[in-house]
Amino acid sequence: xxxxxxxxxxxxxxxxxxxxxxxxxxxxxxxxxxxxxxxxxxxxxxxxxxxxxxxxxxxxxxxxxxxxxxxxxxxxxxxxxxxxxxxxxxxxxxxxxxxxxxxxxxxxxxxxxxxxxxxxxxxxxxxxxxxxxxxxxxxxxxxxxxxxxxxxxxxxxxxxxxxxxxxxxxxxxxxxxxxxxxxxxxxxxxxxxxxxxxxxxxxxxxxxxxxxxxxxxxxxxxxxxxxxxxxxxxxxxxxxxxxxxxxxxxxxxxxxxxxxxxxxxxxxxxxxxxxxxxxxxxxxxxxxxxxxxxxxxxxxxxxxxxxxxxxxxxxxxxxxxxxxxxxxxxxxxxxxxxxxxxxxxxxxxxxxxx
Length: 354
What we know:
Layout (H helix, E strand, L loop, with lengths): L2 E10 L3 E4 L20 H12 L3 E4 L6 H16 L8 E5 L18 H9 L7 E5 L5 H14 L5 E9 L16 E11 L5 E9 L8 E4 L12 E4 L1 H23 L6 E6 L4 H13 L14 H4 L6 H10 L13 E8 L3 E8 L1
Parallel strand pairs: 4-5, 4-6, 11-12
Antiparallel strand pairs: 1-7, 2-3, 6-7, 8-13, 9-10, 12-13
């Protein structure tokens, strides 16, 4: 029986830091275009209390999302010590394609995965490259797809990337613009005859009856901006309540399918969307088993890196595996969970034995 294992990881964290204080000059508005009653200092302090974000990273103007994806991919390939010509699939998760700095248009022709394959110099035409649009859970879903290819016997090595430059699709008049950041993470998923570790189980869901447009593209809150220019928007409260209700259930479904005891779970790598939301999700997840979350079970990077959408989970995983987050590590044999929630509304979770 063949298993699917992560044999290498890599991430790219942009160099440009933007601290919360740098938003003091923004003119934040309500959705109807009216001014807030509070000063920017109050708005920013409240934002930090809720999200935990102190600063975030933005890509240099010369780089696009596919460039960031390439940098992360090269590190993952080096980490796995494989020949990129042996890759069967390159799966790249994103939401907005390559958006050039100061541009108002996305570029997705050719696909970002094709661009990364080109940058890697891969000649093999049997290495299939494609993009996946699945909201913030896109990278996790890409890993699930890679496992499916491996289980079906049509792939032995897959490269899965999550890359995004959200800083280029934000409305500077929207408080939520402070959440978003840029970055990329990647991993190599390989077929293995060693079944004692690798992906054990997964769960994926899409909710659309009421939830489809909780995240969407909309106009600037400044009514003087061009009406045909769109920015990332969200119904934050609805997303918060949706995530708290549904993400713990999906995580439990994956754990229950795995046959692994909840007591064996050492780490939960959850999408870095909002510190308070993530903490509440973990508490509710463990409450489903009538337990309390173990100390240190949830590594976090949101404080310094913000929310880079599809890149948060693979970046966080890479940082922990490379001992870049204090007091966090994963050892051989540890059971971990990878979980995410985002636009769609989509949810997924993977149970993995390292």
